[in-house]
Give the backbone structure.
Amino acid sequence: MSQLFIARLECSLVGRKMPLRFTNRSQVARIYGALSTTEHYYCNFGVAPEYIALLKSGAMQGTGSDSEGEVRVIELPGHPFFIGSLFVPQTRSTPQRSHPLVTAFLQAVLQDRPKQGMTHAW
């Protein structure tokens, strides 16, 4: 029997613009250069309430929450880029200015690339 970590929300977030607060010293706070921001949502899903305690007890952490305290950003500390969000960062990106999470993801990919002439063993 499978159990869903992400579940349908009782109240849709589609079309909502909501403030977020980030955990101090989290990777996402460092990427934004701030402890808060406002983001747009286009989903009907969130972290299932019965899994929040489990989430907080393990290595993966809830590092961003809305004004009601609901987890909206998770990350795996120590990983080059393991960040999940319930908002859609690419919708705010433009050719002139990409979203901070999009830029950070691309930087993490480029830093992990093998040096010229070297290959990975995977």
User: Anything to note?
Assistant: The chain has a mean pLDDT of 84. The chain has one domain: 6-112.
